[in-house]
What we know:
Layout (H helix, E strand, L loop, with lengths): L3 E2 L5 E5 L4 E6 L2 E4 L2 H8 L7 H11 L4 H17 L4 E2 L1
Antiparallel strand pairs: 1-5, 2-3, 3-4
Helix pairs in contact: 2-3
Amino acid sequence: MSVPVLPRGVRLHDDRVRNCKVLLGPERALILDETGTAILSAVDGTRSIDQIAADLAQRYSAPLEAVRPDVTNFLGDLAKRRLVDLV
Length: 87
């Protein structure tokens, strides 16, 4: 399974004005909700999408079958926007 990484120039930022996390990329910013923040906070360049989903399912006591598609779709969408690389 793919391992998500934040590409060069993309970072997770704590926006103190809006009191939320923001994914900053070249000439763009994406305000994250709690789910997006949880997923991107788990992206460390070593864990696969499946590992991230399993960790989040355990942390939130949710069924893995419900969490995995959300994680996969979210990171896949960010990859299409070039805000995440899948290696």
